[in-house]
Amino acid sequence: MCKKWLFISMLSLLTFSLLLLTGCAPAKNQGSAAEAAHRKDELVLAIGYEPEDGFDPTTGWGRYGSPLFQSTLLKRGNNLEIVDDLATGYEVSDDGLVWTVHLRDDVKFSDGQPLTAEDVVYTYETASKSGSVLDLGVMKRAEATDPYTVKFTLHHPQSTFVNVLAATGIVPKHAHGEDYAKKPIGSGPYKLVQWDVGQQLIVEANPEYYGPKSTFTKLTFLFLNEDAAFAAAKAGEVDMAFVLPTVARQEVPGMHLVAVDSVDNRGILFPTVGSGGTTKDGAPIGNDVTADIAIRKAINLAVDRQKLVDGILEGFGTPAYSVADGMPWWNPDTVMEDGDVEGARKILEEAGWKDTDGDGILEKGSLKAEFTLIYPADDETRQSLAIAVADMLKPLGINMKVEGKSWDDIEHMMHANAVLFGWGSYDPLEMYNLYSSKTAGVGWYNTGFYANPAVDEYMEKALAATSEEEALGYWKKAQWDGKTGFSAKGDAPWAWLVNRQHLYLVRDGLDIGKPKIQPHGHGWPITDNIVEWSWKE
Amino acid sequence: MNRRQKTLISTLLAALLLTGVIACGLLLGDERITTNLEARNASPSLAHPFGTDWLGRDMFVRTVKGLTVSMGVGVTAAAASTAVALTLGMLAATLGKAVDAAVSWLIDLFLGVPHLVALILISFALGGGMKGVVAGIALTHWPSLARVIRAEVMQLRSAEFVQISRRLGKSRWWVASRHMLPHLIPQLFIGFVLLFPHAILHEASISFLGFGLPPHQPAIGIILSESMRYLTTGMWWLAFFPGLSLLVIVRAFDVLGDNLRMLADPHRAHQ
After folding, report:
1. CB-based contact (8 Å) between A12 and chain B?
2. A161 and A35 in contact (C-beta within 8 Å)?
3. Which tens digit of pLDDT belongs to each residue from A472-517?
4. Calpha distance B57→A120 (Å, rounded)
5. Distance from the A331 Cα atom to the nearest Cα atom in chain B, whole angstroms
6. Cα dihedral sign for B128, B133, B138, B141?
7. pLDDT tens digit string along A176-212?
8. Are the CB atoms for B56 and B37 separated by under 8 Å?
9. What pLDDT score was predicted for residue A4?
10. How would you class B154 by CB atoms within 10 Å of its CB: exposed for 0-12, middle for 13-18, buried for 19 or more?
11. Contact A428, A160 (CB under 8 A)
């Protein structure tokens, strides 16, 4: 009896698998036809990495804007200007301490509940307590003065608070629980249908969304790395894929390449103080060689940035001269002629660096022009940049040793060694954090312990400014005011190298509008203007 | 030409190749692998027999240097492994039943765990890098040799000259160093040479997997794993030549080891 059952089940299994096998072949051929049928309002995208912490804005999701499921009070327009989103307007008190934001009264979350000032207050209070990457330390309290007005009170004036308003997605107070990060509910253009961790994310258009409706009712995000995304694009399985510069020049039938400018930059941070100190955790601080401004200026001058762009980014990028190239607060005066080895040599000579023992490396007294540049070992682009820059500096007589490390190791070494970092944000506060003496040694910020009172003063003034124009003026002066600044023309605590372009293979016929200059973080920010995407006929 | 002569010649050739590669690796300066962004991704030519990589570095020099690094790792790791095997094998065979049982158990344990897994664990625990790789290989490759040595010592223990020395009241240490060790040298040497290709291959594989040497060091495993990314772009020379060289080197060591064993084996001497 038992045997018979086994036999029957085996047989049925066999037939079934045969059916499957034969069924597979024609299905593949029909793929494109089926695709054509449903492709009108659905997209399959392989454009970014999976956010490990989920989709909760109060713990950092969408900190570069465009949270997809949620919407923000303000947002950045196509020219990166601040425009209203959930807000209908905002006022700042004369002392810069009180920000009053008026909300739209017609907004509903995807579960049908209205979005009110209570939700906004809840979001900001929660986020400030969560101690995440979102820095709300400046906020004293948030309160709802009426159902559609929120009043934020700050500890001290901070003009960049506007960026917090543009980067924090609003969560519903009534539905924000333990598993919110996995099942977000918001007022954004899309709502989550299914998230298979490690594989894919399926979202559907949010019927309650108050903004312009997207052409696409369903999006599937596949979480692939760049290589797999490229393979998927070649196989015609995705409508859009993010790719590395190394493969971007290859023709993929049915797809075209879109290169989007970004402030996703790469640069070398130098410790600007002499060695000897240690941080609270016992990590060494300072480096005697890079503490010499002549070394830093010479490196900035000698590096041929265009060569790096062409050679390592395959031309998909731009030379970087500051942390915020192209942003409204960027000072265009910081751009300089580079690749000038002779000029760099002169700077070093004037500062007293000479090759006294004939080994090809400069000396100054007992100091040798030698230091280590560390980079995250798993990042191929940074490795290539590090090696190429080190080789560019050799003819100068500066011996920059290159070492790949894990982020944990870098965290311990970054105060005493040059580091190949990447930054780039829509918030000038990042600039403040990188260059202010107040943030020296705080987290990943200003690990070189750079300090310049003039720069500090400009940046404090920029923070205290009550209008954006006023703030922008001070931000620019902090970079270079004609005499001093934190750019390469001034104290040169960094040698910025390149801005990457973010590269996407896009199916022919799919119009992704005009993406803004992208921030750090390849992928999610591209969905920012997703309501503008459509099929061209 | 008889077989012994043939063996001798192939041994010499293999040894010559290996010393040649090491000499090249040590003599060629670092300036030969500086980046040259104007000559990137060049296919093999007279100026660059193995082509150049995406930073314009000459692949021939990188390969030779990589092989030298790999061989350096191989020598140190194999030597350390042999030392471990010798110590444990001798201890097991001379210090009595309890120690023998413990060592045998240890050997079985290490043989039971897949090489690569143990290797990755040890190397990772020691923080990767040269130190981690050498320690990892040294600590995982000794068991089979230790077993051979243990058996050999057991056999020697019952030999007449050992028995006589014992009766004459010589210490264990005296017997071990004067009688046993000289007898073990051929086994040790051949064991060492045979461990060598193993060590190189494992160094290459864990560096390939990213648990080994740091990525800017020109080791073969790293060169191979880097080249993986460029295979889809049609740059076959990045993987082909270094891979082939690794194969040739490993094979050369194999030949060397096998031949030495044959030459050292008295039963085969008459062939």
Report:
1. no
2. no
3. 999 999 999 989 999 999 999 999 999 999 999 999 989 988 888 8
4. 56
5. 30
6. positive
7. 888 898 899 999 999 999 999 889 999 999 988 988 8
8. yes
9. 53
10. middle
11. yes
- Considering only CA atoms, which of A454, A458, A456, A460 is closest in space to residue A446? A456
Whether A23 shows a pLDDT value over 90: the answer reads: no
Give the closest of B210, B216, B230 to A383, CB-based: B216
Tell me the shortest Cα–Cα distance from A407 to chain B, in angstroms: 13
- With a cut of 60, say whether residue A128 has pLDDT above it: yes
- Kindly report, residue by residue over B119-141, the tens digit of the pLDDT: 888 888 887 778 888 888 888 88
Which residues 118-147 on chain B approach chain A with CB closer than 8 angstroms? none
Q: Does A315 touch chain B (CB under 8 A)?
A: no
Q: Can you give A155-196 as a three-state secondary structure string? A: CCCCCCHHHHHHHCECCCHHHCCHHHHCCCCCCCCEEEEEEE
Mean per-residue pLDDT, B169-189: 83
What's the CA gap between A219 and A211, in Å, rounded? Answer: 18
pTM: 0.79
8-state DSSP, B52: B
Under 8 Å CB-to-CB from A220, ≥6 apart: which residues?
A: A42, A43, A44, A45, A200, A201, A202, A203
Backbone φ and ψ of A531, nearest 5°: -65, -15
How far apart CA A290 and CA A64 sit, in angstroms, is 32
**What is the distance in angstroms between the Cα of A388 and the nearest Cα belonging to chain B?**
6
Set of chain A residues whose Cβ sits within 8 Å of the Cβ of B56: 311
The secondary structure of residue A34, as a DSSP letter, is H
Backbone angles phi, psi at A141, to 5 degrees: -160, 160
CA separation for the pair A9, B193 (Å, rounded): 55
Q: Is A411 exposed, middle or buried (0-12, 13-18, 19+ CB in 10 A)?
A: middle
* Side chain identity, residue A312: I
3-state helix, strand, coil in chain A (%, to 5): 35, 25, 45
Helix, strand, coil shares of chain B, percent, nearest 5, are 80, 0, 20
Identify the DSSP state of A514. Answer: -
Give the A window 227-246 contacts with B, CB below 8 Å. Answer: 227, 230-231, 244, 246
Could you report the per-residue pLDDT of A46-75, keeping only the tens digit for each?
A: 988 888 788 888 887 877 767 889 999 998
Its sign, for the CA torsion B119, B124, B128, B134, is negative
- From the list B25, B26, B27, B55, the residue with the least C-alpha distance to B41 is B55
Q: A424 in the Ramachandran plot: left (φ > 0), alpha (ψ -120 to 50) or beta?
A: left
**Phi-psi group of B235: left, alpha or beta (phi > 0 → left; psi -120 to 50 → alpha; rest → beta):** beta
8 Å CB contact of A404 and B216: yes
- Which tops the pLDDT comparison, A389 or B90? A389
The backbone torsions φ and ψ at residue A535, rounded to the nearest 5 degrees and listed phi first, read -90, 130
The nearest CA of chain B is from the CA of A306 a distance in Å of 11
User: Region B24-38: what's the mean pLDDT?
Assistant: 78
**What number is the average pLDDT over the span A211-224?**
90
Residues in chain B: 271
Predicted ipTM beyond 0.85? no
The rounded mean pLDDT for chain A is: 86
Distance (Å, whole) CA A308 – CA A298: 17
d(CA A434, CA A148): 36
Q: Rounded distance, CA B99 to CA B91, Å?
A: 7
